[in-house]
Design goal:
This protein is of the alpha+beta class. It is built from two helices and eleven strands.
Length: 252
């Protein structure tokens, strides 16, 4: 039986299309939430001057923590004990950073290259480092852990590099960087080096690759009903309405 100007079958078609549109939007929004739920980065690392091989890989981690106190990461249960304090037999002499890739020219970069020189009073020692970023003065978030590498006394030829492409989960902002060094023999924390020790690790303008895109503007129509993903159901409705009208005309 016709309802208004449309048959029941017409309304069923429009209802099905609208439901499909809402489901599609829900799927897109769920996928977007999943993408931003974790941080993803690609890291290359090694000792440039000591003949070490670079190691690379994808890392998925917890969401970026932006609020709360900025405590020493090594005080957590994930790392070695810091009760004994800094070991005077280990220190980081210096560190340097370089930033690359700002395709949308907004002043934020997606590639962070770090190089640091760890030294020891021993002839040699095996160590590893955990690297952290803090967004706008917030808590430290670990973004990479190095492989175990060997340092030789106070040599200046055993620098270690960690080059990282921030893929997703890193909002645009000002980041500080912290290096924590651990003795590979027993996993104990031995020393740290951060923004308090070097301006190279302070106030780094970073963002992930998802945010660093060049947007080409094009004419759009504006309405009070909103836009974006929520506009798809309305578009499907009007497309269905047009299709029904054309079909009805051809059948007359």
């Amino acid at each position: 039986m016709p309802i208004g100007n449309y048959k029941s079958s017409d309304l069923l078609v429009m209802t099905a299309l609208l439901l499909g549109g809402f489901l599609a939007v829900g799927t897109v929004n769920a996928a977007e939430s999943e993408r931003t739920a974790k941080r993803e980065s690609f890291t290359e690392q090694g000792q440039r001057n000591a003949g070490g091989s670079a190691i690379s890989g994808i890392e998925l981690q917890d969401p970026m923590q932006k609020d709360g106190p900025r405590l020493a990461p090594s005080s957590s249960s994930k790392s070695g004990s810091r009760v004994a304090g800094i070991d005077p037999n280990f220190w980081i002499y210096d560190a340097a950073t370089l930033l690359f890739h700002d395709y949308d020219n907004d002043g934020y970069y997606t590639r962070l290259e770090l190089e640091f020189d760890a030294d020891t009073n021993f002839v040699s020692a095996d160590v590893y480092a955990r690297l952290f970023l803090s967004l706008d003065g917030g808590p430290w978030n670990e973004y990479a852990t190095t492989a175990i590498f060997t340092i030789h006394g106070s040599s200046g030829t055993d620098d270690y590099f960690v080059d990282t492409d921030l893929v997703s989960g890193y909002p645009a902002g000002s980041y500080d960087l912290l290096i924590e060094l651990y003795d590979a023999y027993d996993g104990q924390f031995v020393t740290s080096f951060g923004p308090a020790e070097s301006s190279e690790l302070f106030d780094l303008p970073l963002e992930d690759q998802q945010a660093d895109s060049v947007i080409i503007s094009s004419p759009v129509s504006h309405s009070h009903g909103g836009g974006g993903a929520t506009g798809w159901p309305a578009a499907l409705f009007f497309a269905a309405l047009l299709l029904i009208r054309v079909t009805r005309r051809r059948m007359m």
